[in-house]
Amino acid sequence: MDRKRFGRLVQLILALVLVLLSPIKGEATDHSGAAEIQRLFLRLRISTLKEAPPLEGVALDLRGEEVELSSFRGNVAFLTFWTTWCPSCKVEMPALQKLFARYQDQGFQVLAVNIQESADKVAEYFRAKGLSYTPLLDPRGQMARGLGVWSVPSTFILDRRGVVLGKVMGARQWDSPEGHKLLELLLTNH
Predict the structure, then answer these.
(1) Which of 104, 94, 99, 139 is nearest to 119 (CA)?
(2) Residue 30: left (phi > 0), alpha (psi -120 to 50), or beta?
(3) Which of 7, 80, 136, 144 has the largest CB neighbor count within 10 A?
């Protein structure tokens, strides 16, 4: 075999090896958006939680009737604990309303659990602020304590199965590009 043929053979073998060792385009693509969700969790300072069973619990609606959290399964939900006197809650609640208004038809719910205030006070607050998502009551703070809520606002991000994906302590500007992107990914992939 002459040098020219040998050189071409070596080039062909090297090219074949490179093709075999390189990933196929798109093969390593994250179709679930998990990497992007994790990036947004970091950016929005959301604590991730290990896979847990679906969240169970009972709150009261404004009529005093029990509402099972499991009744909201099938939706991505933000379970937010708040009070009417909380300054950070007053900032966060309108941002949650904007998200809810935009994504409710895609299976997004905001469950705003008020801690230890009356139904009348919560109803008036919702009316005055123009909030249309679901107000719930935790009159004795039992649900909040059971979930380790020690400050308001505190938000739990639930997937469609009711599993807690993340927890946020303190207010976030949910009506931001990152907030919208996160919710769109959760609605598409969870």
Answers:
(1) 139
(2) beta
(3) 80
